[in-house]
Structure to design on (668 residues):
């Protein structure tokens, strides 16, 4: 009946290039007063859980180990994926490794959360609902009609009616107006056995292939061949959009998925004392003196080998640059 | 009766900061396929003159020496000013150092000129007119109503009627429409004796103080105390705007004073094969891969310790940044 914080750490964060690289995804960049998002995640959830289980990849498990060691977290288990197969499978690995009655509290490793009290309270409620046999999700109360997030529609009892993909701006406005739509935060809480039951029911191929891979796990490492056979789909597609046992916890704590430089800037603006965040333009990653002339809302990012300059509202386009460079100059993504 | 190319090399080029610094004014930056503007000036004028005389300063005479050595120019004279006193005095030093009948062909060291044949021809005409007893200036035929240059009004015989300071845009359009106005290029040609006569007549204080300083010259170095006493005014104010013995040679060769990043970009655009110049945005001084997203006509300049980002049409504002940094962070100008 332990509560296990399952930390998903497979993302590469292409939308924070050139800061984030294949060799250092965004959750491992020490952007936040020397701490990484991965460290902040583990430190935040440690007091709320009995165990930590890191689901990472061969490309980054050493970064996870270094990060945890640096903040004196020494007891944790890890599952190391030979290749990425999306969240449905990653959570299945954690569920197979746990006792059936254990509660999995699943968190991405690359989000920012502030407001300890509200967060603690929300997690406690989620654990209670999970023990009662619900798949629990966490939904942020929308601050504006954001088009970068999926939405969760719920009823008066916080039972989930539907999951919505990232909407267009008009649709997003409609969601916000209706009042019973929340931003999908990507955090979940449920019994290991219930997750596996629902996965088997709605995405049997993922369940079977993940079980097969898990049977061949060797000192935490999952084998490449068996992982190749796993369908790559998200937990939302595989389970959440089908199950009728889902509750959502609307939360009020501050949450930011740092899915873009715009989101990073918003975080800096809200955070007191971050001088950069309040400037007319934002310079990141540089120790140089930066002068902007006649510009506003420009983001400048500098690394050893690459520079990115764009208006704040173009942050979503970084992903396209990343994809283009994958073909043209892959060495810049390493 | 020698023709002496007087190279004026006192400018600091604050409008090309952060590329140009006090320790490396723009004429000494190897921007042009490894050559500096100073070198290009000496190489261009060497074949058109009998001697080279460099009028520089204690801050940069070593850069001049290195530059000339690197392009195998070994015979030249130099006058090293203890502090800058503007062009009227600088040219006076060259004139005092020459024989009265020598022809001084005075050129700034930080301009770009292309089109050898037209240039050679214009200089030859200037030398002829100078021998006939004229103060000769060179005027570029305006390509557009530029507000960054002074203008020269002339009559049918190319006799100068007036010098105009940098105009507003409406005034500039009027000059271009009238057809007998040229951009003041800052190049001159005249007999040493005539220049000194006119200087004595119209700016006696400069003449006297420059003569006094010149009498104390020691191995090329002009003394600080005597230089302090020299009024700091330009040759335009001191002589050209008053004398009635001035001819202007309208020229058609390509000329660019590189007085701003905008001017530098224009040069790159015109020059064949300069890939950078034709891009939507311009990145200078960096070896990094630079990505612009959703931006056009942006200039990015990177150096070891400073970065500048601005729209092309704000290039003139760099001077203000330079002046502000002079108070706030003078170490960034060194």
């Amino acid at each position: 009946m332990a509560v296990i914080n399952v930390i998903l750490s497979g993302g590469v964060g292409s939308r924070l290039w050139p800061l984030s690289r294949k060799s250092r995804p965004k959750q491992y960049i020490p952007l936040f007063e020397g701490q990484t998002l991965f460290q902040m995640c583990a430190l935040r959830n440690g007091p709320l859980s009995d165990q930590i289980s890191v689901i990472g990849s061969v490309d980054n498990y050493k970064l996870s180990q270094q990060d945890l060691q640096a903040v004196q977290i020494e007891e944790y288990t890890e599952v190391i994926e030979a290749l990425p197969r999306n969240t449905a499978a990653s959570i299945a690995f954690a569920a197979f490794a746990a006792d059936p009655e254990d509660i999995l509290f699943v968190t991405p490793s690359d989000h920012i959360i502030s407001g300890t009290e509200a967060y603690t309270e929300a997690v406690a409620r989620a654990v209670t609902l999970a023990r009662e046999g619900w798949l629990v999700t966490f939904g942020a109360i929308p601050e504006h009609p954001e088009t970068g997030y999926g939405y969760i529609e719920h009823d008066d009892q916080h039972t989930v009616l539907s999951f919505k993909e990232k909407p267009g701006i008009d649709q997003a406005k409609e969601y916000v107006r209706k009042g019973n739509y929340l931003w999908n935060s990507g955090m979940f809480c449920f019994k290991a056995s219930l997750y596996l039951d629902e996965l088997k029911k709605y995405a049997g191929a993922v369940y079977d292939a993940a079980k097969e891979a898990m049977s061949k796990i060797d000192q935490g490492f999952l084998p490449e061949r068996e992982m190749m056979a796993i369908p790559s789909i998200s937990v939302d597609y595989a389970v959440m959009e089908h199950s009728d046992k889902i509750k959502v916890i609307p939360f009020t704590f501050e949450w930011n998925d740092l899915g873009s430089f715009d989101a990073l800037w918003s975080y800096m603006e809200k955070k007191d004392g971050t001088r950069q965040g309040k400037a007319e333009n934002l310079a990141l990653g540089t120790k140089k003196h930066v002068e902007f002339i006649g510009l506003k809302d420009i983001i400048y990012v500098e690394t050893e080998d690459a520079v990115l300059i764009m208006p704040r509202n173009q942050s979503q386009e970084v992903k396209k640059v990343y994809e283009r460079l994958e073909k043209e100059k892959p060495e810049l993504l390493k």
Q: What stands out?
A: Residues 68 and 74 of chain A are 7 Å apart (CA to CA).
